[in-house]
Amino acid sequence: MTFAPKPGCPMCSIAQAASMTPQNTPSTPVFSLSQVPQPEILWRDDNFTAYLEKNNPVSSKGHIIILFNLHVPSIYSLSSSDLPLLVQVQRRAQQLLHILQRPSSSQSPDPYHTNSPIVTSPLTSTLPFHIGFITPPFKDSKIPVTDHLHAHAYIGTPDLAGWWRKTAYSYLGWYAIDDLIAEIRETTSNNRVKSGYPNRGPAPIDMVPDAGSRSGRPDGIETTEQSLAFDDVENLCSAINSCGSYYK
């Protein structure tokens, strides 16, 4: 299944513009459309683009959005083979929030630390970080993109949101990424303990990003679906730029 860029999608525009910069860098891309705001890119790799939400942050302590570079419409487009991608989102978001939380950080993460290897801490955490997705019919009224999958990561409480916007970040609309990872794993493994429960210690399975990503039949035939992950940045750029004319 392919997920080509969608004309007019703000997230596709951000991903397409970020693809013009070297990967794994926090540099801000130059947009071809002047009316499109230029977000501060904190991280970009083959699969994701992370930027600091400055216009409408939900938290005064920091709000980051990590979007899929491809136009993936929803979490229901993901399969167990995409578990490593979700773990990567969770850990990259955690790393960026750590940097935002540093007292020495005035505006944005230090690019020298942003380029450091991704953290490998367990998914379960007592830190005041919230990483997850807003699920329909709810949406962030200030960032109303519902058909391009992106994760929200913020520190503390959504203190900058009004009561209606807070609904999307409550138990009604919020799907924590660690719970999503655990529930997908339950379909392919014997893991029956959700990673997001704070009243348990770190489980060994939390340290294995690929856990539960493969499936098969009793006769040894593997039935794992193809992952959305890009292993080659050139393939990614080709996919993103396939509709590049829409953004010019």
Give a description of the structure.
Helix content is 23%, strand content 12%. It is globular, with a radius of gyration of 18 Å. The chain has 248 residues and is an alpha+beta fold. It is built from six helices and six strands. Mean pLDDT is 75; it is low at 26-36, 110-124 and 232-248. A six-stranded antiparallel beta sheet has the order 1-2-3-5-4-6, with helices on both faces. Helix 2 packs antiparallel against helix 5 (177-186).
Radius of gyration: 18 Å
Sequence of strands across the biggest β-sheet: 1-2-3-5-4-6
Going by helix content, strand content and strand pairing, the class is: alpha+beta
* Number of discrete helical segments: 6
Distance between the termini: 26 Å
Question: Topology of this protein?
Answer:
Blueprint: H1 10-18, E1 40-44, E2 48-52, E3 63-68, H2 83-101, H3 111-114, E4 129-134, E5 150-155, H4 163-168, E6 174-176, H5 177-186, H6 233-241
Antiparallel strand pairs: 1-2, 2-3, 3-5, 4-5, 4-6
